[in-house]
Write a structure and sequence with these properties.
Elements (H helix, E strand, L loop, with lengths): L9 E3 L9 E3 L2 H11 L2 H12 L5 H8 L7 H15 L2
Length: 88
């Protein structure tokens, strides 16, 4: 995950959660998590988030630079996905 993801968690609470507050990944962090997983279903999810304009590619690029470089190959795959989406 990109550095700082914990500070960007989104609190979600509804009457159906019975007073429990869920902590959810911010949408750009979720996109990166899914892109790093690099499964077909996750890539489709990432494409859909972009197509319905829920994520900004510039923000994703910025956050990809903050992912631990031990995940180099996975980060490269995610960056290539960003490049492909930018050409759509």
């Amino acid at each position: 995950m990109p550095q700082g993801w914990e500070e960007r968690l989104v609190r979600y609470r509804t009457p159906s959660t019975d007073g429990v507050t869920a902590l959810c990944l911010e949408i750009h962090d979720l996109w990166i998590f899914k892109a790093l997983a690099n499964r077909d279903k996750d890539i489709e999810f990432c494409k859909a988030l972009y197509q319905i304009k829920l994520v900004a590619l510039e923000e994703i690029k910025n956050r990809l630079q903050k992912v631990d470089q031990q995940h180099g190959t996975k980060v490269e795959h995610a960056a290539k996905l960003v490049d492909r989406l930018a050409r759509l």
